[in-house]
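Milestone 3.1: sequence recovery, worked example.
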C-alpha cells in the first residue's frame, strides 16, 4: 500500500463526483433521474465561437505550446470585455492572466499565498472549492456566515471581533453561489476597506455576473481595489463554455506575476484555437446575454413552481443559474428532502449542506435543464 499524502486527509472526493456516480447507477437500473443538481450550462456557445475553433484548429501552425501568460489576442479581449461590461480598466499586458477555468485559479491563489497554518476566510454557504483549495495548500479555513439575518453579506461587526492576525486571504463571490445574492457597490467598498485595514487579500470570484443579473459588477471597479483584491472570472456560465475551460485572473501586475510563478509550473498554456474562440465569445454583443437570460428566466418560473410543490421558501431576487430555497419545517434537514425526492420521485436536487453548515435547511435547484424537464420533475413530485 502506498499511503496518500497527508494533505489529502483534509479533503474528500468532490460531492458531485460521488453523487453523479450514484445517479449513473440509478439510471442503469432504469430510473431515468432528472438532474437539477449541477450547474453545467446545457445550451451551446454562440455559433461563431464554434466556427472560430473549427477554422483555427484546422490550421497547421497552431498546435505548439503557447505563451504561459496566454495569447495577447485573448488578453486584449478580456481587457475590452472588462471595460465594456464592468467599466474597469485592466492592462492586457500586465493585469490579466487567462486560466484553464476559474476553478484552477482558486487553487493557484491558495498555493501562491498560503503557508502551512495561514488562515483564510471562506463563505458559509459557499462554493466548496474555496475550502478544499485552502486546505490542500495547508491553510486553515475560518468560516464567515451568510444568512438571511445579514442579508447574505459578510457581517463585518462579527468579523472584527475575531482574531484576524493569521488571516491572509478572504474568498468572496457575488452573485453568490449558492444563495443567489447579488453584489452591491457598497458591499464591495466595505470588503476593500476591510482588506486594507487588516492586510487581507480579497479574492473575488465573479463567474455568475451575467446570469439573471441586470448589472454586472466587478470588485475592481472600486477605487484602490487593485491594491488589495484579485478577481476571477470565467466563460463557463456567461458563454455556455463550461467544458472549454476558459477563465481569467485580473489584478495588479505584481499579483499576476506572483500567481504566474506558481501556475507556470503547473501547466503549459491553453490550446491557441480555444483562446481565439474565447476571444470571439468575449466580443459578443448584448443580444447574446439577453438571449441566454431569456431562456433562464422562463426556466426560473418553472423552478419556482417546483419549489412551491415541495413547500420551500425562496427570494425572487436571486442571480446566477440556481435557486436557493429554505425547506419547510416538516424536514429536520435538507438531505431528508433531497433523498426523498431522489429515491421516490427520481429527481435530483442539491442539499444545501454541501456548501457549508449554514446550508443545512436549504436546497439548491439548477436552471441548467429545459422547461420540459423541470415540468416533468414537477409532475413526478406531485404524483
Ligand atoms: C462560485 C464558482 N466559482 C467557480 C466555479 C468554477 O468555474 P470554472 O468552470 O470557471 O472553473 C464555479 C463552478 O461551478 C462556481 O460555482
Amino acid at each position: 500500500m502506498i499511503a496518500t499524502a497527508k494533505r489529502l486527509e483534509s479533503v474528500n472526493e468532490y460531492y458531485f463526483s460521488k453523487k453523479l456516480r450514484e445517479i449513473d447507477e440509478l439510471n442503469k437500473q432504469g430510473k431515468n433521474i432528472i438532474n437539477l443538481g449541477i450547474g453545467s450550462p446545457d445550451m451551446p456557445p454562440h455559433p461563431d465561437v464554434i466556427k472560430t475553433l473549427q477554422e483555427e484548429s484546422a490550421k497547421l501552425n497552431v498546435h505548439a505550446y503557447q505563451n504561459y501568460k496566454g495569447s495577447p489576442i485573448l488578453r486584449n479581449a478580456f481587457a475590452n470585455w472588462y471595460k465594456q461590461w464592468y467599466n474597469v480598466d485592466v492592462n492586457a499586458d500586465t493585469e490579466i492572466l487567462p486560466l484553464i477555468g476559474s476553478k484552477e485559479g482558486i487553487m493557484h491563489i491558495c498555493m501562491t499565498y498560503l503557508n502551512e497554518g495561514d488562515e483564510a476566510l471562506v463563505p458559509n454557504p459557499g462554493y466548496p472549492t474555496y475550502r478544499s483549495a485552502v486546505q490542500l495548500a495547508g491553510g486553515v479555513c475560518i468560516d464567515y456566515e451568510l444568512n438571511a439575518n445579514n442579508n447574505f453579506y459578510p457581517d463585518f461587526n462579527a468579523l472584527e471581533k475575531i482574531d484576524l492576525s493569521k488571516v491572509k486571504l478572504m474568498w468572496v463571490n457575488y452573485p453568490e453561489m449558492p444563495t443567489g445574492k447579488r453584489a452591491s457597490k457598497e458591499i464591495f467598498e466595505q470588503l476593500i476597506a476591510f482588506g486594507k485595514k487588516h492586510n487581507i487579500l480579497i479574492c473575488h470570484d465573479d463567474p455568475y455576473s451575467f446570469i439573471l443579473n441586470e448589472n454586472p459588477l466587478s470588485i475592481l471597479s472600486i477605487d484602490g481595489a487593485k491594491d488589495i483584491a484579485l478577481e476571477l472570472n470565467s466563460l463557463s456560465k456567461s458563454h455556455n463554455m463550461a467544458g472549454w475551460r476558459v477563465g481569467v485572473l485580473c489584478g495588479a501586475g505584481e499579483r499576476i506575476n506572483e500567481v504566474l510563478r506558481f501556475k507556470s509550473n503547473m501547466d503549459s498554456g491553453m490550446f491557441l484555437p480555444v483562446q481565439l474562440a474565447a476571444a470571439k465569445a468575449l466580443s459578443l454583443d448584448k443580444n447574446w446575454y439577453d438571449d441566454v437570460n431569456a431562456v433562464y428566466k422562463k426556466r426560473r418560473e418553472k423552478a419556482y413552481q417546483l419549489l412551491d410543490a415541495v413547500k420551500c421558501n425562496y427570494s425572487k431576487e436571486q442571480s446566477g443559474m440556481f435557486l436557493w430555497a429554505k425547506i419547510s419545517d416538516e424536514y429536520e434537514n435538507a438531505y431528508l428532502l433531497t433523498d426523498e425526492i431522489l429515491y421516490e420521485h427520481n429527481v435530483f436536487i442539491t442539499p444545501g449542506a454541501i456548501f457549508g453548515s449554514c446550508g443545512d435547511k436549504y436546497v439548491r435547484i439548477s436552471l441548467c435543464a429545459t422547461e420540459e424537464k423541470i415540468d416533468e420533475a414537477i409532475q413526478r413530485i406531485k404524483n
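The pocket of pyridoxal-5'-phosphate is lined by residues 39, 101-103, 127, 173, 177, 205, 207, 234, 236, 242, 247 (CB under 6 Å). The chain has a mean pLDDT of 96.
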